[in-house]
Amino acid sequence: MTQYLLSVYHPEELTFPPEQLEKVYADVDALNSEIKAAGAWVFGGGLHPSSTATVVQLRDGEVLTTDGPFTEGKEHVGGFWIIEAPDLDAALEWGRKATRACIVPVEVRPFQDEPE
Amino acid sequence: MIPASASPSEIDRLFRQEYGRAVAVLVRIFGDIDVAEEAVQDAFTAAVQRWPTSGVPPSPAGWIITTARRRAIDRLRRESTRQDRHAAAALLHAGDEPAKEDPVGDDRLRLIFTCCHPSLSPSAQVALTLRLLGGLTTAEVAHAFLVPEPTMAQRLVRAKGKIRDAKIPYRVPSDAELPDRLRAVLTVVYLIFNEGYAASSGDRLIREDLCAEAIRLGRLLATLMPDEPEVLGLLALMLLIESRRCGRTTSGGDLVRLSDQDRSLWDRDLIDEGQAIVRRCLQRNQPGPYQLQAAINAVHSDAPTAMTTDWQQILQLYDQLLVLSPSPVVALHRAVAVAEVEGPAAALTLVDDLGLTGYYLFHAIRADLLRRLGRPADAASSYDEAIAHTDNVAEQTFLERTRQTLLH
């Protein structure tokens, strides 16, 4: 089994009308239950907006703390799942369900070897 | 039985012919492309040393596969004692997987679907397919696509790394996924064929090789998936286009348009084979874009002279094709048939509506229609546009030559 990170990419400016947002919440809840029932669940959750992020990094040996987010893109990770799957096809199947539920793009990326 | 002695060129030929089969079996056994490639390479090196004196064994592929498996296991045992987790994993995978020769080709089919997985970029899909199933060297693949060899090597390393790390499976997709995944495989094979056919530049021999390789892959797919009509359609399409190779250029390398080709130069065997497949597809009656394009080419092949071409039938086939794949490029080709059936004025109206102004063929077809409508000045400026929109030297020369005939 390999663990995969399913990152949900959320355009910063995007806002859903309330009824659509409710549907997204309901669909994501249902998907969470499905992932757990299938035994593929490792971890998952939604994040506060990227304006709440803080960056820490090394500068000349000192740790510098600055306002985030780290990348100045138009899209940021808005949430993620870590799932376990036998291969990429199985992970992509969860990814497809995830993008249908969240209605934004989802990136599927493998973790390095499982911890021993 | 006295074994046949083997010349280096015979071994080269066997290498190309059997490489894909051997790699596919070894990938199944070890679950790792690098291990498989290295093992097969080792086995061919052994063959080059041994076969010139001992002769070619009765089953060269069997010998290569058995030798490759044994040598890989020896190597992996040495490496796994040094705590190489990869080696250990490959060795574990080999377990008691039998070193079968892949007589039904399932291993190669699985590997094609892996190489053409949608999570790989199209250029990586093409490169992997040529490298792993076609047995082309990295240098040959690089040369064919006019990419520096280190760039191609890096592309292949990255793609193989993604297959390994993201665990792209070696598997024929389930029925639900098959139509999409098969379409991707056929696209790759046709891309390889077109790259060889269009000869936008580069070494002519390598390019003819690409067409031959695409047809070989097409035949393999047709053998492995005989119930997929589009697989047959693609094979027929490639065979029928390939049949005109000798008529398509002059000895000096200039392009000859279809209507001016010496049809006695067309390869009758390829035409017969292609047309027989088209007939099988027609009986099956599950038309698709490749089958329809093959059928259009079959109608051209049927006509003893350009004058006797059944344009009415070609137009009907284009009508069907336009329904299945409604694209401006298909509509442009359909307009050529309209010109023959209804005249150039009707065709020009259709073409002008398409507005494919960045596509050289749009301008070339427009130029030809304007020429036939007795508007040489407009035709000449359209030829200029066409020439400006292609990098293909052969096409440029052809268009330049046609443009000059306008003025006489």
Describe this structure in words.
The complex is a heterodimer of chains A (116) and B (408). Chain A is built from 2 helices and 6 strands, in the order βαββββαβ. Chain A is α+β, with helices and mostly antiparallel strands and 116 residues long. Chain A has one domain: Alpha-Beta Plaits (2-Layer Sandwich), CATH 3.30.70. In chain A, the strands form 2 sheets. In chain A, strands 2-5-1-6 form a 4-stranded antiparallel β-sheet, with helices on one face. Chain A has a two-stranded antiparallel sheet with strand order 3-4. In chain A, α1 (18-37) runs antiparallel to α2. Chain A is globular, with a radius of gyration of 16 Å. The two termini of chain A are 12 Å apart. The mean pLDDT of chain A is 93. Chain B has 408 residues and is mainly α. Chain B folds into 3 domains: 1-102, Rna Polymerase Sigma Factor, Chain: A (Orthogonal Bundle), CATH 1.10.1740; 105-202 and 215-220, no CATH class; 327-408, Tetratricopeptide repeat domain (Serine Threonine Protein Phosphatase 5, Tetratricopeptide repeat). Chain B has 20 helices and no strands. Chain B has helices spanning 8-30, 33-54, 60-80, 85-94, 106-115, 122-133, 138-144, 149-165, 178-198, 204-224, 229-242, 245-248, 268-284, 289-302, 311-324, 328-342, 344-354, 360-372, 376-388, 393-406. The A-B interface holds A 2, 86-89, 91-92, 108-110, 112-113 and B 85, 117, 119, 165-169, 171, 173, 177.
Topology:
The complex is a heterodimer of chains A (116) and B (408).
Chain A: E1 2-11, H1 18-37, E2 41-46, E3 54-59, E4 62-67, E5 75-85, H2 88-102, E6 106-110
Antiparallel strand pairs in A: 1-5, 1-6, 2-5, 3-4
Helix pairs in contact in A: 1-2
Chain B: H1 8-30, H2 33-54, H3 60-80, H4 85-94, H5 106-115, H6 122-133, H7 138-144, H8 149-165, H9 178-198, H10 204-224, H11 229-242, H12 245-248, H13 268-284, H14 289-302, H15 311-324, H16 328-342, H17 344-354, H18 360-372, H19 376-388, H20 393-406
